[in-house]
Design goal:
By secondary structure, this protein is of the alpha/beta class. 37% of the residues lie in helices and 25% in strands.
């Protein structure tokens, strides 16, 4: 497969155009719609020495809280504009916290095979078109006894649905259904606002 077709399959070109405009205002605007981010991190049960993959880490909002739990954290983000913001955040954290960044699209390599204790998708899975491959990769990357945490949109009413679709967010239960299939031992919480629903999912790897 050519590099161009791989980019198209992963939807990276469209996402980069979108985040090139959004990166500068992302942290100011997203707290009004990205609910449950603190709760999903708390429920991961991150402990000292754990290796945590934050897949689609964006501007790195979760990196500090995860690293302060004395974990080794890898922020994976394929948008250069967002990764630059994450890099600035990591620099402010200081060298004593173990945080690294990976620009490569998640799911395209087996570098983390059976090496992750925790994997986090915080409002990122819905923006990854090949989600079946992504989740299969996450399942393979988790060590036995590891845990995946996902918080994301489920569905929405107008005009939020149209806004999310323009923001490259895929609504619907398909991703949640696949999570349930891959992680039979799980805890699921579905939350409602007046205009949309979102879910929090924690799954255990056998």
């Amino acid at each position: 497969m050519s590099d161009a077709s791989a980019l198209d399959r992963l939807g990276l070109e469209a996402l980069e155009r979108f985040y090139r405009r959004q990166a500068g205002i992302y942290d100011w605007t997203r707290p009004f719609i990205l609910f449950g981010r603190r709760e999903i991190v708390a429920g991961l049960g991150v402990g000292p020495g754990h290796r945590v993959l934050d897949v689609g880490c964006g501007t790195g909002w979760n990196l500090g809280p995860l690293a302060r739990m004395r974990a080794e954290v890898v922020g994976i983000e394929c948008s250069p504009a967002m990764l630059r913001r994450a890099g600035q955040r990591v620099a402010r954290l200081g060298e004593r916290l173990r945080v690294s960044l990976d620009l490569r699209p998640y799911g395209t390599r087996a570098d983390y095979l059976d090496q992750a204790d925790r994997i986090l998708f915080s409002y990122s899975l819905s923006m990854m078109p090949p989600y079946l491959e992504i989740l299969a990769r996450a399942r393979a990357d988790l060590r036995a006894g590891g845990r995946i945490g996902v918080v994301d949109f489920l569905d929405a009413l107008p005009p939020v649905a149209q806004f999310l679709e323009r923001s490259h967010v895929a609504l619907g239960a398909h991703r949640l259904d696949e999570l349930r299939r891959l992680f039979p031992r799980h805890f699921l919480k579905i939350c409602s606002t007046s205009l949309w629903r979102y879910f929090l999912f924690w799954g255990e790897a056998d």
